[in-house]
Amino acid sequence: MAGNTQINCNGGQGNSSDETKEDRLSSLPDDILIRILSHLSIYTALKTSRLSRRWRNLWKGLTNFTFSTRSMNFEALENILYQLTSPNIRVFDISFRLHDDSEQFQSNFKAAESCFLHILRRNVEVLKVRSDSYLAVPNCVFNCHTLVVLELDGELDFELKLDEENDLPLDGTTFNLPNLKKLRLRVDSCDYCLLRTLLKFCPLLEDLCLILDLSGGDLLEIVAPNVKYLNIDNLVVTPYSDVVINAPKLAKIKICDMCSYYSFETIPTSLVEASVNFRSYDDTVWQVFDGQYHGWTVEGHALAMSKFFRGMSSVSSFKLKCFENIHMFLGSSNDGDMPVFHDLTFFKAKLDCLVGWEDLLCSLHCFPNLMHLELKISDTFFWGPSRWFAPIVLPDCLLSKLRKITLKEIWGIRDELKLIEFILNHANVLEELLIYVSTFIKEHGVNRLWKEYKFCEALFNLSRSFLTCKIVFSGVHINAASDAFEKGLIGCQILTDYMTDTDSVTSD
Asked: What is the DSSP string of 173-206?
């Protein structure tokens, strides 16, 4: 008679009396286990050495090295590095969150330089360094032929000696990053020459991310002949800084900057996607500058930037957050002509109030082939008048191209219903209208539920030129769609537990 059997952890059959079986995980090949450990921080990987003799030395084969610490103990880090057995370290990601301990830093500086040299000799491909306290980055970081990604962010100091007139290194310093494709760098007014010099020695660079700390009156030149993706984030609120971009192969650009002046040295003809945010820092420009600061004004900034926007007329996707007048950024300070974005099919923007709709509808003449429009109404609109006026001449895209419109931060007021009705009566091919209600409405509980319901009911009763257009309403308490609207009844989902007997509401 056959004895009792059971499935053991290795997936086979064995006698129930077998008590010592190797677990499945430990039975995997070394290269797979090392790949698993590579997803952990170095300290967590080190702890696995205590599991068993099988795991004791596995961590030493790591090729991905992630290190995060609140101390700058480079001597301990160096000791770990020297125990690694792999000839290559593909990723070295190091992050310092430090307390003020300058004495500790001074004692570890030589060990820090030794650590970076050790990593660079291991054919590192991805090097990421972040620190929220002063950290000197040795010159050797800029001399590595295997680097593909270099990210230097935080309170870093570069003790390079550079020829600022010719943008070249001095005193035997060597720049050599022939395979670098992605660079992230924090740049302040002391590092402009470093950036210009560095870009000269990155012939394959495609992805450039700059965190700027500009001072008033600065001129920053970005010369990157092969860069396709450019991301700029300015951390300060000082005007009069000029940023000149010379990247003829640029395909995507993203800018978050309150008031610097941008221009293209060479117009990027391959640009397909642009995202420009001139409303950063919680829209505090009015509090900081009171609308004007040493001659800087919203109107002056917009007119000066109109030429920059003309250089982006090849885009198919455009996201714009600016001050209240979009029309100014698309106009010209010279002749008032508007650029035409023939390839643009998606446009996203933010309006300060309903008055801005008239300005927006005039601006839509620039986008003759627009198919998707996404707009957000600022939550500050109630501080001023909310009336809007329809333009005399309607844009072509509204009449014959727009198929989807998304409206966010709607308050459910009468003027908004008039605006939406105007859209529905003139958007002849509109297929979908998405309405999202603002979360800032003062009413709460049942009062808000009733207000959302009545607005939704009025919304679905509006006339429309394209009868198959679907309207989708998303509120705090109610979600509903027009295709469920039949014979004066609304079928909707109640998101809050106000209804005890049913999860839907209908009204005659």
From this structure: ---B-TT--EEEEEEETTSHHHHHHHHHT-TT--
Structure tokens at 434: 């998405």
Q: How far apart are the first and last CA of the chain?
A: 77
> Is the pLDDT higher at 365 or at 389?
365
What does DSSP say about strands 126-137 and 273-277: parallel, antiparallel, or unpaired? unpaired
Q: Nearest-CA neighbor of 132 among 103, 159, 94?
A: 94
- The rounded distance, in Å, linking the Cα atoms of 88 and 120 is 9
Cα separation, 106 vs 118, in Å, equals: 20
SS3 305: helix
Q: Please give the structure tokens belonging to residue 368.
A: 């003759």
State the DSSP string of 138-149.
Answer: PGGGGB-TT-SE
How far apart CA 204 and CA 199 sit, in angstroms, is 10
The Cβ of residue 167 has, within 10 Å, a number of other Cβ atoms equal to 18
Contact 347, 370 (CB under 8 A): yes
pLDDT (tens digit per residue) in 323-357: 656 777 886 544 557 789 999 999 998 876 666 77
Question: Rounded to an integer, what distance in angstroms lies between the CA atom of residue 436 and that of residue 459?
Answer: 12
Assess whether pLDDT exceeds 60 at residue 386. no
Helix axes 74-81 and 102-121, enclosed angle (nearest 10): 20
What does the DSSP 8-state code read for residue 169? E
Q: How many CB atoms lie within 10 A of CB 507?
A: 11
> Phi and psi of 322, rounded to 5°?
-135, -165
Structure tokens that stand for 375 in this block: 């707009």
What type of residue is 178? P
**Cβ-Cβ contacts under 8 Å for 290 (sequence gap 6 or more):** none
Q: Decide: 180 and 200 in contact? Cβ < 8 Å.
A: no
pLDDT, tens digit (0-9, with 9 covering 90-100), for 135-194:
778 888 899 999 999 999 887 777 777 777 777 777 777 888 999 999 999 888 777 888
